[in-house]
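Interim report, section 4.2 (structural modelling).
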Amino acid sequence: MPTVAKAYVATSATELRPGLIERREPGEFEVRISIKFTGICHSDIHTARGDWAGVKYPVVVGHEIAGVVEAVGAKVTRHAIGDRVGVGCFVDSCRECVNCLAGEEQYCLSGSLSTYNSTGRDGLPTAGGYSTSIVVDENYVLRIPEGISLEAAAPLLCAGITMYSPLRTWGAGPGKRVAIIGLGGLGHMGVKIASALGADVSVLSQSLKKQEDAFRLGANGYYATSDPGVVDVLSGHFDLVINTVSADIDVDRYLSLLAVDGALIMVGLPSEPVTLRVWSLAGSRRTLAGSKLGGIAQTQEMLEFCAARGLGADVEVISADKINDAFDRVIASDVRYRFVVDASTF
Ligand code: NAP
Ligand code: ZN
Ligand code: ZN
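Predicted structure of the assembly:
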């Protein structure tokens, strides 16, 4: 039998309001999760507020989901009722293409199925974590290890893996100088994880306001990007720079901070194209790359990595009626460092 879930629904680019949605009965290989906490990712805001093309209202956003399994299909083997689990940004993929077979389902050649604002195999729109329950194929559900609270774990399902994956791909570790641009939801997890990997971590933030926090999170360098002198001080300094800013940035300026063979990785997703001078790359054999999320196996690895080191997100738990205010605060860079909604208030 389908069940009814409470949800917060974006009915237009200007409003989220309480509503009810139907969740299908779990199929043979599916689990139904009672959602306990959902993180507010900036991508939820881009989607709900119509910054990106292709938003279909009404939409239920939310892809940093932590909860407990409350029902399982007949053939489920990976999860049991009562397990602490999480769901991230996608809930299915083709499972056959070269990328799915390599465990990089986020780059599925047929397109991984987004947790929200997509169309599922049943032809219905997918609805995300701003709700009290969700039904997901067991292969796309993560185990949340003991030793990390569900509210601190929720943001790991997007922010955590989005930073862990490029940090691993580009070899962050001892002897590597890493910089994170933007100390928000993604950025603060980037600092924690890069520091736990043993890298020398700096934060490039708009102002000096978050300096103390950055050092507490594990950074040992901090620079205000509003200071034009930053480029002179840090020219050629970093092996890896990860940009989490969703607004347009001066790509040439940040490329100039890279050493020879250094890489600037774009994970922030501005809606407008970026421009750069090729000389900023060629002049020191630098790389400009992008990265999206991480595969299911790597997400599980990241959860174990974080739990073993006590690394959860720094969260401010809010009730659902504060979501609209929280969106405004995230846009104003006024979040320390992830809002997480208590799902019992939907
Ligand atoms: P967030 O919490 O808002 O953090 C972004 C940070 O960027 C802010 O805290 C702020 O840090 C800085 N910033 C904001 N506006 C700026 C501006 N105009 N100029 C310079 N710096 C600015 O957002 P988030 O949830 O971390 O997400 C960041 C971006 O990543 C979004 O575009 C989101 O859609 C995208 N995203 C991408 C992926 C992926 O797989 N690639 C996954 C998740 C999210 P300071 O105050 O320190 O400057
Ligand atoms: Zn996200
Ligand atoms: Zn695939």
